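Weekly structure sync, notes
Attendees: PL (lead), two postdocs, one rotation student
Agenda item 3: pending single-chain targets
PL asked that the sequence for the first pending target be pasted directly into the notes so everyone works from the same version. It is reproduced below exactly as submitted, 408 residues in total.
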Amino acid sequence: MRSLVLGIAFSTLSAFGMSPIKALGETIDPAEIVQVVGEELKIQEAPPNRHLGTRLAGVKSLKPLTGEPSYGPVRYALDPDSLVIRFNGRILKEGKDYILDHEFGTLGLGNASSIRPDDQVLADYRYAKQRIDSQIQLPDGRTIIRKGKSRISEPPIPELLPDEKRLANIYVPAFSDGTDAVFLPVLKTPDQIQTATQAGMIPKTMKKIQAGMPVRVTCWGDSVTVGADVGDSARNSFVSLLQQRLNEKFPSADITVNRVAVGGSTSTAWLDGTRAGCDFNRVITPKPDLVVIEFLNDARTITTKEAFLRIYTEILDRLTPTEAEIIFITPNYSMFDWPDIRGKDERPYIGYLRDFAAEHNIAVADASARWENLWQEGIPWPSLLGTINHPNAGGHILYAEELIKCFK
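Predicted structure, written out during the meeting:
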């Protein structure tokens, strides 16, 4: 593996569309690679489906509080060519004995497999961690590169010491040899990022807040609203952060933020009642003044404008009689999307949602625009993604920052 002399010219890296940087006079170390030998596992009978399947322990993302492997694999963390699986000393054949999802590293038995789901096998493989280094200006004016800590997921940004200034972050993706590290200068602050979030779109709610009347806010959504994989949901989820920020912004107000959410759900599941816990009456029975709607899963399952309009018109029709105001949240990136670090958010759902909100004069908390432009803040978006499609605590802060802009 090679190290790189940093610079500013860019070319394409396969998984990310990212680029090498040349000559800043500092070297960038390669990504850390880990060799696993003899991992015991049993391979499920069903073929893998992206993140679903038998998961190799090394490529699982980490739990926020304990650092232990979670249930979700990290995309592109496995070197698929390195995988060797043995049963009773015999090397099994990919495509016959087992099927491998090369991107997610999940496994299932092949149609002509010589083993059964209850047979224990041994797996050897390599996986790589990610890292973020920082270009930092010291108090005396000198510039250094501070190396970050390697992690399979959510690589942390190096901390600053007193009177230091961060000039850029350098993202070292899995299996990088250093020459394809991504140089991300800090170009803008969060307040300078342009989004579709607008104030003045929830006038009835604001009037009640200013009058000192009780205000009930319901946050309705999927596992992101639940606060899955964020660690302490009561402190770190955007629902909790919204309550905290509203209390700070309006200390004399009587505002209650409630969570009505089911992991894995879509808006359709709530309208049809087709998933356990997804009863639309849970949304409207508390008689909320404001409903904040987040469905990352809709961004993956609603693929046509016709379907979007049918579903979201029904949501509007059901909420209109309650006289509750609405804030739609455009959601975060996920491992299913995996856009380029500097790429555009090309999910059709995001455009549908923004257009629908504008047509019906509904508020939007445009979190997806923040994710799309994180590179301008010097932040690689994978650093804010936890398991599969769940943002970590930093990702939830983006939601809260966009939501609180609506309360003016």
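Discussion points:
- The longest strand covers residues 33-42.
- Residues 33-128 form one domain.
Action: rotation student to compare against the earlier draft before next sync.
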